[in-house]
Hints:
Blueprint: E1 6-17, E2 20-31, E3 35-39, H1 46-53, E4 64-67, E5 70-71, H2 76-79, E6 83-86, H3 98-108, H4 113-126, H5 142-154, E7 160-164, H6 172-188, E8 192-196, H7 200-203, E9 208-213, E10 215-220, H8 222-233, H9 241-257
The structure holds adenosine-5'-triphosphate (ATP) and magnesium ion.
Amino acid sequence: xxxxxxxxxxxxxxxxxxxxxxxxxxxxxxxxxxxxxxxxxxxxxxxxxxxxxxxxxxxxxxxxxxxxxxxxxxxxxxxxxxxxxxxxxxxxxxxxxxxxxxxxxxxxxxxxxxxxxxxxxxxxxxxxxxxxxxxxxxxxxxxxxxxxxxxxxxxxxxxxxxxxxxxxxxxxxxxxxxxxxxxxxxxxxxxxxxxxxxxxxxxxxxxxxxxxxxxxxxxxxxxxxxxxxxxxxxxxxxxxxxxxxxxxxxxxxxxxxxxxxx
Length: 262
Ligand SMILES: Nc1ncnc2c1ncn2[C@@H]1O[C@H](COP(=O)(O)OP(=O)(O)OP(=O)(O)O)[C@@H](O)[C@H]1O
Ligand SMILES: [Mg+2]
């Protein structure tokens, strides 16, 4: 992999809140066109990692974080235009309609006005909201609000998409459509995607995954991880990702209880 393909590099990332350590020597790299899944239990540090990557939280001393080769947080303004972000909590204008929210953010991103309306229509179709585009957001269901939030993250065709639990509360059919789209833009447009999810069945769709519990406790290509566990357990069939996740998580917890590392 040539060096220019490196889109995100996180080294030695620790984060302490008071005397609570939320992240400990976290290491992540994401290459161009790669979908990286950050998978971990509640409170394992996924959103904290994303917030630091976006400059919303400050890392402890010693972290080395780069996005498109630029240091975070000092050089973030240079790369912000290339990043799309869907936060875990909805942060949209609830008294505006879906389409008004999209237009507002499209203007903010200064998207070429000739293509703007066509592209907004295209994105609305993708998230299946065309029919409801004039509905005020506070009258939309939770799933519809999340779909609007995803639409906004995609609006300026970012080169790096950061999605914090984008499929929560989204029905299975649409979740499938979202993942097909993520795979399409990563492979065809070279978009890199950092995604968190609690749906382990989805994680097999990532190119690489990292199980996180303050640090990356296991990292790899989903199928390789499944094969590795199959061999460890001498199992007759390939384990699903839920079994793989539980195995490494339990092993990690056991090691911590014994005072060591995995
Ligand atoms: N501002 C803060 N002050 C104190 N503790 C915090 C703060 N933000 C996060 N934490 C703590 O850091 C830990 C990691 O939180 P984080 O939100 O990153 O978890 P997460 O992996 O995203 O969890 P979830 O799957 O529930 O979204 C938690 O124990 C959380 O309570
Ligand atoms: Mg979170």
